Each structure stands twice: as structure tokens, then as C-alpha cells.
Amino acid sequence: MRQSAFCRGVGLLIFVGSLFMVACQKNQEPDARGPVTDQRDGREEGRTFLQQLGLKAGDSARMVITEAINSLDKPGLQTIEVAEGERIWVFPMNTAVKLQFGLSRFSPDKQRMVVLRSKAGKFTTGNIIEFDPLPGGGKLEGESLKQYLVKGRLEVDGTLTSYSLGGALLGRYSFRNGDIETYAVPQERKQGPMQAGSGSAWSSDCTYYFLLVYSGGDLVATQLLSYTCETSGTCGDYMLDCGSGGGGGGTGTSVPEDCSDVESKLGGTAQSGAVKSAFILNQTDIRKKSYKWMIYKQSLGMFAFYSHEIATHRRVNGVWRFESLVHQTISKEGFIPIGTADVTLNTAVSHVGLYNAIMELNCTYTTTFSCKELKYSGSRNFSAVKNFHVND
Predict the structure, then answer these.
(1) Rounded Cα–Cα distance for residues 5 and 3 (Å)
(2) pTM for this structure?
(3) Which of 107, 219, 258, 309 is most buried, most CB within 10 Å of its CB?
(4) Where does the chain have alpha helices with state H?
(5) Rounded distance, CA 271 to CA 363, Å?
């Protein structure tokens, strides 16, 4: 699998030109005014933090933090204490830096920040968020920022877009009056070359990137964001010009053609499977539910991976509302016919409205197998997004 020139360059674009503001918080729970800030020089504290996270050289999160530490004498370092030993670290980021499929319209109020999470002094997950408020709306800061980062609840009207630390689009969410009005997720579709006389004709393998827009759980719009080609020529049903060609996505060892059948047995696709739920707690004014849903399925249906979440609902004026949605773990079910396959979590971000809550996962699917006495491995990132209704 190859990577497009855009994807190869987006990581560099994210880090070059990033400017960060100062905000160093003492190790205490923020009060109602939001995170406590300290305008002193935080360079040494930033370096200490970087060492504590234990990130490897070349890790995208390490590059983000290193850029913050080296850019200014006072790098941005804002922390929110979630629980004992658990923290959220926030670095404001320059909104002029281009991200994959970023918002095109200029907004002087648009905010962007790098969000990292640590537990017991070790980095766990991270992502980049971009918030564009509605005209006349407020900023995502103080208590509203804390509410979103800790509980996933956005109380400021506007559009929030989530990216991986590498700059890939994960999801886009429109909030109004505390509820999720619409949400949109990217989808990748591939088409192989077709010959004239088959009803369609194009000369290159193509990868399309669409944005699927949902309202109330229903698909309401599909937008073509971009496309890449394996070779020059024309691409797919749209007959788009491929120019000199581009690449696909993912990494791994090149597999010879006569081993491709073995490799295909480990292939699969991201899913947004049906929800299985069960009550953990069910009282008059509060209840908790466990959710289980499929996030990745092998192409032959022999094995699959599932995500597990826990939701808390509260009854307000006789009506159940979401209070929180928290990711728990990823499990595997079924039989792996050859080699190994695993899914590791990169980011789990919840977006909580009044009656709907969305879990957004960014994961890496990794496989290994042997063929002709040689061992091969590969990996690809994928996203899985699920919308839960309070009555699911």
C-alpha cells in the first residue's frame, strides 16, 4: 500500500509554523472558571513532560510537543486534571496550517488545539481539534473547554472537527443548543481499472475520499472531498484526471503476487455495526448502559473486532438525556485463519449531545503472516464512528 503525496506532506505542514501560547496549570483540579494558568516560562516543564510521556523518536505526538517547546520561550502547556493520575494536555495551534480536508472558509474566531491524554505519567491518546463558532458565538475555552474534553459535551454553538495527530480527518460535528445537529465522517472507496466495452472505462486504480453527512442518524448528503490514483490516466466513474498519479494509504512490507491470496485472508473493512446494549444500572433518575458494536470485519466474516462503551443517562423533567459516553476496550471474536491480526486504539473521542452521543475511534489494524518461508507484515489506520440514541 502506498501513501499519497498529500498524506506524506500533511504531517510536515502541521508542525511547521505552529505557534503556541503559554498556559501552565498547577497540579490541582480546575475550578468553575476553567483551567488555572501560569504565565511563567514553561520550557523546562515542557521538556520534563515530554520525557514523562515516553514517546519514541519520530512519533507524531513527540514532534508536536517538541515543536511547542522549541517554538517560543513560553510554549503552550495547559493541563486539566481528570482523575488521580489522569490528565489532559492542551496546546493551542496555529489555524493557518493546512490539515486534511480542513474548513475552507476563513474565520477569525476559529480555534485549533492539540489534545493529549496521559495516565500514570504515560501518553495514552491524542488528537487535533478545530472549532469554528457560529457568528456571534463564544470561544471554546475555560469551563466550556473542560466540559468538552472531560465529558464530550459542547455547550458553545458551532462546528467541531477532529483530526488524528498526523492530520487525517476523523469527523466533523455541528452543535446547537447543546445537542448534535449534524455530524459527518470520511469514507474511503476504491475502484480498480475497467476496460472499454464494460459500460465504463478508466485506466487507473482510484481511491475516493467522501464526506458522509448525517442528521438524526440518517444519511442526508455525500460530498466528494478528494481522490488519488495509482497511475496516470483517468480515475473511476467520475473520469477524473489522474495527472502523474498518486498513492493509496497504509504501510507494510511489499507482498509478492503469488502470496496475495494468503494476504487477502486477513483483509477487511471498517464497520459501524448494530448496537448491542445492556443495563448496568437502572434507577429512577439515572441509568448506565453498556454498548457493544462492530468496528472492523474480515472480508470473509471469519473474525471481527468490537468496541465497548459505557453511557450514563439522567432523567430531566421526565425525559432521558445523555450525561457521558466513555470508551472501555476493544475485543476480538472469531477465528483468524492464518497469521495474526490485531487492532490497537489511537484515539477515542466522545461527542455528547442531549439525546444523541457519538463515539469516534481512530485505530490501527496490524497483520502478520508467513508465505514461502518469509514473514510479512502490514498496517493501516482506520476510523469507526457510531451514533447512539439515548433510547438505544
Answers:
(1) 7
(2) 0.70
(3) 309
(4) 5-15, 43-53, 60-71, 142-151, 260-264
(5) 12
